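Shipment paperwork, digital attachment
Item: protein structure file
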Amino acid sequence: MNNVDKFIKLVHECDNIVFFGGAGVSTESGIPDFRSPDGLYNQKYKYPPETIISHSFYQRYPEEFYRFYKDKMLYPDAKPGITHLALAKLEKEGKLKAVVTQNIDGLHQKAGSSNVIELHGSVLRNYCERCHKFYGIDKIINSEGIPMCDCGGRIKPDVVLYEEGLDDNNVTNAVNCIKQADMLIVGGTSLGVYPAAGLIDYYRGDKLVLINKSATPYDNRADILINAPLADVFKNFM
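Attachment content:
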């Protein structure tokens, strides 16, 4: 029995599964990741992307921030891929209890998942820094330059920028879900971004599955290791 078959068998046997995912979940929906050869970090801008999407850059150069953000971070027409849809199906079957995601695209919810913990926020939510009124993604897309609220305040995406901390409630919820999970599936992430990657340390079970095209620092801890595209694995549940 190969590792994919072992994984499928385990999923059928478990009913308290948590999925922890990264950019690789959404690349099949046409949303580029950050670190691959054609990812955001390898594109040429006046500043490196990790600088542009930092808190200090947003504060100092909001117009430059928004030029990059609208051009490279928003994919309003993206559709859920096989992995998103398979996870939503497993939730409906009572097997998957939570999705913990580093992605900010809202595709898990679009696919039908209801218990989604968004560690890094969502591009679909935006708020006025002055009056705290919330706006959808259309407000950002349709604005010229810096999006401004009716009250005159600047609108900020509800995403965690570099130099900003994760939301405490989201971290607590993620930790609790992972601690209680019978099975933890980690997919589409290089596990190089902290503190998010460190959440795996809270898993106490013996069914840790890592699915990623390239190696991660946690490979030697996996009970099942699958080096393959997520869609090739999760199509088995559709």
